[in-house]
TrEMBL record:
Its main location: cytoplasm. Gene3D superfamilies: P-loop containing nucleotide triphosphate hydrolases, Peptide chain release factor 3, domain III, Translation factors. Increases the formation of ribosomal termination complexes and stimulates activities of RF-1 and RF-2. It binds guanine nucleotides and has strong preference for UGA stop codons. It may interact directly with the ribosome. The stimulation of RF-1 and RF-2 is significantly reduced by GTP and GDP, but not by GMP. This is Peptide chain release factor 3. InterPro entries: EF-G-like_DII (IPR053905), EFG_III/V (IPR035647), G_TR_CS (IPR031157), P-loop_NTPase (IPR027417), PrfC (IPR004548), RF3_C (IPR032090), RF3_dom_3_sf (IPR038467), RF3_GTP-bd (IPR041732).
Amino acid sequence: MSNRRTFAIISHPDAGKTTLTEKLLLQGGAIHLAGEVKARGQARRARSDWMKIEQQRGISVTSSVMTFERDGVTFNLLDTPGHEDFSEDTYRTLTAVDSAVMVIDAAKGIEPQTRKLFEVCRLRSVPIITFVNKVDREGRPVFELLDEIADMLALDVSPQAYPVGMGGEFEGVLDFATGCVARPEGPSKEFLGTRDCDPSIPDRFAEEIELAQIGYPEFDLDAYRNGDLTPVYFGSALKNFGVTELIEALAKHAPPPRPQPAGDDKVDPEQDEVTGFIFKVQANMDPNHRDRIAFMRMASGTFKRGMKLTPSGLGKPIAVHSPIMFFAQDREIADTAEAGDIIGIPNHGTLRVGDTLSEKDKVRFTGLPNFAPEILRRVQLKDPTKTKQLRKALDDLSEEGVIQVFYPELGAQHIVGVVGQLQLDVLVSRLAAEYKVDAGLEAAPFDTARWIKGPQAEIETFEGFNRANLARDRDGDLVFMAKSAWDVNYQQEKHPELTFSATKER
C-alpha cells in the first residue's frame, strides 16, 4: 500500500496534459513507443481518450484510469478532462486521488480552468506538484510564472529545476537536486538522455538561477503534503524534458493512500476491513457488449477476487468475480488490490456513484457532491416510440455524471442539467451513437435548480403552491426549478424553514 501513488493531472486545454500523460506511460513501460497511443488522422489523443466525440474533437471529455509500475512503485493515473466545459465527472475524480500534477503552459501561466480545478483540490487539501510545460518555446519570464502561482493560488512555491533559456535561447533544464543540465540534442532539440553534470551556464542565466535557489522556500515535505507548498518542475513533455524528474518526484514525495472521510470519522488505509467507494460509473466502454463499469477507489484492506462486499445503496452483499485493472480502455482481471488502487466492477446498474462498498456494511464515505446545474435544457424526442430507450439512456448518463436529469411533477418532457456546454454535445452524441435515440434539446423555462430540504409539513405546503416549478431527480429527491437567482432568494425568504441547496452530497 505504501508503494501506491494515486494521482490526477489537471490543466487548462492545450497546456500539454495529453502529451505528458503519454510520456509518463512511456516512462512507466506501459507503452513502448512514443506515438503508439495516438489516434490515426488529425485528432491527436492519448489512448485514454476513447469516446467517439473525444476522437472527433481531440479532447478528453471523460475520466479514465491508467495503472502502471516503475521501480517498484504502482502509479494509478486518473486522467481528467481539461476542456473548459468539463463535467461533474471531473470533480468526482478529484475526490479519488491522493495528489495531483498541475500542468501550466510557460507562455500562458495560470488560466481560468486550471484555477477552477485547483480550487476543487484545495477543498480536499490535495497536494499539488506543478509542471511548467513548453519551456523549449518562447514563454513568460520564470520569476513572473513562479510569482503568479504563489499569488493566484496562495501557495508557497519551491522551484526544483530551472530552464536555461527559453525558445530560441533554450539550452536545457537544470535539476537543482543533482546540479545536472538535461541538454537538447539532434535537429528536433529533444532530450535523448544526455545530462551535463559539470555544466557551464552562461552568465545571463546563472544569476537568475542563483536567485531562484535562494529566493524561494526550500522544499518541505510536510508543507507539500498539507497542500500549503507546491514544488515546481520545468520541462517540455513533447521533447521529454523534465518527465523523468516529475515521475521520480511523484514516487519520492507524493503521499501514499490517505485516510478517507466517512462522516465525522476517517477510514485509515491500514485497517484490515476492505472498504472503497464508487466515484464514477461508465456505461458502454465496449459498445458491443453494452457493459457498465463502476470505478471503485480502494480505501482500506486487501481486496481479493471473488470477495463479497456490501454496497451501501443495496444492503445485501455482492460477489466481485471479475474486477478489472485499467490501461485506459484496455483491461485485465485483477486478482488482488490494495488501498489506493482503482478497480472496475462490471455490473448491471447495481452500483451507483457515491456508493460505499465494505465487508461489514458499517462505513459510509462522504464528500462526493452533486452540483446545481448551470445550464438546463428540455429533451425533445424525435421518435415518440423511443420513450423507454430515452429514459434508460438518461438514467445511465446521469449516473455517470455526464448530466443530471429532472422529471417534472407536471408535464412530460424530461429536463437535463449540466455544468458545462460541452456536456450537451456529449449527451446528443452518445444518445445517437450508443442508444440509437435521435433527440434534440430546446431551451427550458428555468435557469437553475435547488434541492429542497426541511420539515415535511412545510415541504407539502410549498409543493401545493409551486407544483409547476417542481421536479424529482433520479433519486426521487424534490428539486425546485428556479427561473432566476432572484426566484431562489424570494422563495427562501418566504419559506425560511426550508433549505434551497446548490449541492447534494451522495
